[in-house]
Amino acid sequence: MTITVRERVDADLPVLEALLAGQQPTSRYPFRWPLPFPAVEFLRRDTEERAWVAEVDGDVAGHVAVTTVVDDDFSRTWSSAVGRPVDELGCVSVLFAGIDYQGMGIGRALLDTAEDYLLAQGRTPVLDVVQSHSAAAAVYAHRGWRLVGTGRPDWLPDDEPDVHLMVLDR
Asked: What is residue 9's three-state secondary structure?
């Protein structure tokens, strides 16, 4: 088995939509499903800077993106925690592996790529994670990500706790 990470291209989007839908029932990511908008809008965001896919033996198996951090409550929490302005942060977003590819190192390879991209630019990686996605939060913590606060996005149901805001100090 060979894992390769490369830039995402538009032709990857239909496969990624299917992978996202296939893994959602077990991961609950994205949290709301079906989405109230086309899944391609979840995958390719207005604030996206770069995006990558992981391939296993030539088949698309997972995805990650880096997005620009916009000035809001989340960014102010991240910025304060690391003592850097918002424009020196970058958000790791839309990280997932297809259900048939989980446990193979896909997430690690994709997260490495996003972190390396931001760190090479001298920026601090940040992300938010839903508390019920405790396995993902544990992976981030194990990799050195630090919990710096909580926040409440407008898409989070009222009966769910706030999301965790995390930063990677390197």
From this structure: coil
| Per-position pLDDT tens, the chain of length 170 | 899 999 999 999 999 999 999 999 999 899 889 999 999 999 999 999 999 999 999 999 999 999 999 999 999 999 999 999 999 999 999 999 999 999 999 999 999 999 999 999 999 999 999 987 778 888 999 999 999 999 999 888 888 899 999 999 97
CB 14, CB 63: distance < 8 Å: no
Sign of CA dihedral 152, 156, 162, 164: negative
